[in-house]
Specification:
The chain is of the alpha/beta class. The protein is built from six helices and ten strands. The strands form two sheets. It has an eight-stranded mixed beta sheet with strand order 5-4-3-6-1-7-10-9, with helices on both faces. Strands 2-8 form a two-stranded antiparallel sheet. β9 and β10 form a beta hairpin. α1 runs parallel beside α4. It starts with a strand and ends in a 12-residue tail after the last strand.
Length: about 200
């Protein structure tokens, strides 16, 4: 069975975007980080996005295939050809394909996609989609990419629910000082509330 992997970029103070959705802080010069992101895309069979994130990314990636930077062109080819599942409450255009809308019955739809064969699926953005997936407990792995930036205010990383995790991997990208933390569910659940004893 395939897994749903949350892969999210966040600032050190816990924001996934600036107050108006700004993402300029993720634009760092780090070839190792760029290659890692391309490898992530090459290793998955589909991507989940919220509607706003999907529409923003659709404005950038199609033209990026012509980038003079080989790694960005590689990322763009993958972004443009991988299946995209867009969480939206209403009908929408899915011109940046292959893409389809989901969200009428998120737990069922995700379960059906996980049953398929092949590589795992990644949940990239945005905050509303992440919150919905967490609320329905359909995330199997957590990858936080922490950027050495303090925004003070912005769009915070939403609640990911209540779950005990174990650290499976730590990767430091030296040039940018970005740190990747990869977590898997731990065996024992977190106790809810307080005990009398």
């Amino acid at each position: 069975m395939r897994k749903v992997i949350l892969s999210v970029m966040t600032t050190l103070d816990g924001f996934t975007a600036g107050p108006n959705g700004e993402l300029d802080w993720i634009d760092v010069e780090d070839d190792d980080l760029d290659e890692h992101m391309a490898d992530v895309l090459a290793g998955i069979d589909g991507m989940f996005f919220g509607r706003v994130a999907y529409e923003l990314l659709a404005q950038y990636w199609p033209a990026a295939e012509h980038s003079s930077r080989a790694v960005e062109a590689r990322q763009a080819r993958l972004m443009n050809t991988l299946p995209k599942y867009v969480l939206s409450r209403s009908a929408m255009a899915t011109d940046w394909g292959p893409a389809q809308r989901i969200g009428d019955d998120l737990p069922h739809e995700v379960a059906q996609l996980k049953v398929g064969t092949g590589n795992d699926l990644a949940l990239f953005a945005g905050a509303g989609a992440i919150a919905a997936f967490a609320a329905h407990d359909v995330i199997d792995e957590y990858r936080l990419m922490i950027f050495p930036v303090l925004l003070e205010k912005g769009i915070p990383l939403p609640s990911l629910g209540s779950r005990r995790l174990r650290l499976a991997e730590t990767t430091v990208f030296d040039r940018s000082s970005v740190v990747l933390l990869r977590y898997l569910p731990a065996a024992e659940p977190i106790a809810q509330g307080f005990s009398d004893g």
